[in-house]
């Protein structure tokens, strides 16, 4: 789905840019960070009408802080001299950045310069491939995303000066859904809604969440690729507008040990070629539910919806790094149900304690039937997360999988001990090892090249963590050990 004002022809593009001298472009790395630059209008138009432009492949060869990966990964390495990739401009993503003097902005995808095939680790390319597979099956993938994020009354400079310690929250106390707290920073709070709308990133809801300086923002439901674009651009918007107001929003999953973490919940559904939600039951089944449903919790899900759910549940433990890609993200899940951060293979009707929440009648209209995947944190890469979710779900439909477990909302200590409930990996190291197994479902649905490359980047992250000496260790052991 294109943005509302995307150019349709070369002449239309030139017309839209006639008063500009430069254009901003960006692609997405494996950590979900936008990497881009300004281009002259003439250079941009030449690239847009040709095979794209050269972009250094180190975008996939370094980590979130630009440290080059020590391992020779598939895309970018010393052996090939970090040669250029082909960055292909997606004209359908056209919008203007209102807080940067309305400069034109476009997203790019990355291709191999020799074969012209998509780069296996390019997040946009991966999701495009999954969406296209869905289209070949007659499916249209739709999604929504909700972000929770802390705000700090800091700047990038003060963060560095304070060494990221003793940071000042934007507001104090626990004030979820407050009508008072936003008035303390009203210009910033309303800018997040109003400026993103001008940026063609539509929001559905925006409010304070429980915790000091925490907001939650729900992005408007749309096609999956557009949703992932909007999710990554919302983060860019929040961080940019935050700098304008002397505020740093953080999408770190668990910035405080004793407070709830920040989620990145993803809502998903599939429509057929006629635009009908295939997860929804027939109108005639609205009163009593679908005959033959596996459980009462799924009686208002169609058979295809139940198969999709089964695919998600079966593959969930194998794709965890695509949902929770950081060391810190697993600390959000440690609290489990206490902080509504589920860490088990569970589902339930309208259950916020389960990993997959079924949202269907009677709580919502028939057309709004969907599933909410509650495992990801706000630090997820939305392209990879949605790719894994839809790939697993469509596998479930293709294989007509049965649900592997009954609905469970509450997981007791006894359930964990007896193995009644399958627990999810509790660390990035364990999750990466499981994902990279030879018989991993992640390999089946997303391919060996992506799993090997992305898995290598996660192993790098684990190695850095294992080598780090933290303040907690110094305080605990320096004097008394």
TrEMBL record:
Q: Name one Pfam family in it.
A: Gln-synt_C
Keyword RNA-binding (UniProt)? no
Coiled coil (UniProt feature): none
- Classify the source by domain of life: Eukaryota
All residue ranges annotated as the GS catalytic domain in the record = 123-481
Q: Name one GO biological process term.
A: glutamine biosynthetic process
Alphabetic keyword roster: ATP-binding, Ligase, Nucleotide-binding
* GO molecular function annotation: ATP binding; glutamine synthetase activity
Q: Which family does it belong to?
A: Belongs to the glutamine synthetase family.
Q: Protein name, please?
A: Glutamine synthetase
């Amino acid at each position: 789905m294109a943005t509302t004002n995307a150019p349709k022809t070369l002449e239309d593009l030139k017309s839209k840019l006639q008063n500009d001298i430069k254009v901003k472009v960006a692609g997405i790395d494996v950590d979900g960070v936008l990497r881009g630059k300004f281009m002259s209008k003439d250079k941009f138009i030449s690239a847009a009408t040709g095979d794209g432009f050269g972009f250094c492949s180190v975008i996939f060869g370094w980590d979130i802080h630009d440290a080059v990966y020590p391992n020779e990964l598939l895309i970018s390495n010393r052996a090939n001299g970090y040669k250029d990739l082909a960055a292909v401009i997606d004209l359908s993503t056209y919008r203007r950045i209102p807080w940067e003097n309305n400069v034109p902005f476009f997203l790019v995808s990355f291709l191999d310069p020799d074969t012209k095939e998509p780069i296996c680790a390019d997040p946009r390319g991966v999701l495009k491939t999954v969406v296209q597979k869905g289209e070949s099956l007659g499916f249209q993938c739709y999604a929504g995303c909700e972000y929770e994020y802390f705000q700090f009354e800091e700047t990038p400079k003060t963060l560095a000066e304070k060494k990221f310690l003793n940071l000042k929250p934007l507001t104090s106390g626990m004030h979820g859904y407050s009508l008072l707290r936003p008035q303390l920073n009203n210009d910033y709070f309303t800018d997040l809604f109003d400026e993103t709308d001008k940026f063609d990133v539509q929001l559905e809801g925006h409010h304070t969440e429980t915790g000091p300086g925490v907001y939650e923002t729900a992005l408007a439901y749309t096609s999956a690729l557009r949703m992932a674009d909007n999710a990554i651009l919302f983060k860019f918007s929040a961080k940019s507008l935050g700098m304008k107001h002397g505020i740093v929003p953080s999408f770190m999953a668990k910035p405080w040990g004793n407070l709830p973490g920040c989620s990145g919940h993803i809502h998903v559904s599939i429509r057929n070629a006629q635009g009908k939600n295939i997860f929804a039951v027939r109108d005639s089944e609205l009163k009593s539910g679908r005959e033959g449903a596996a459980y009462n919790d799924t009686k208002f899900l169609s058979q295809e919806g139940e198969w999709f759910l089964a695919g998600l549940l079966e593959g969930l433990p194998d794709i965890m790094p695509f949902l929770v890609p950081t060391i810190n993200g697993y600390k959000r899940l440690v609290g489990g149900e206490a902080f509504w951060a589920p860490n088990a293979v569970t589902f339930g009707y309208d259950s916020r304690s389960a990993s997959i929440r079924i949202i269907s009648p009677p709580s919502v209209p028939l057309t709004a039937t969907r599933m909410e995947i509650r495992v990801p944190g706000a630090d997820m890469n939305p392209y990879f997360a949605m790719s894994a979710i839809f790939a697993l779900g469509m596998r479930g439909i293709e294989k007509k999988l049965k649900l592997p477990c009954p609905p469970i909302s509450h997981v007791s200590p006894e359930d964990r001990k007896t193995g009644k409930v399958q627990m999810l990996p509790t660390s990035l190291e364990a999750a990466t090892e499981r994902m990279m197994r030879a018989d991993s479902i992640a390999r089946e649905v997303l391919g060996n090249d992506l799993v090997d490359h992305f898995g290598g980047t996660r192993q790098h992250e684990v190695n850095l963590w294992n080598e780090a000496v933290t303040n907690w260790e110094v305080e605990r052991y320096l004097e008394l050990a």
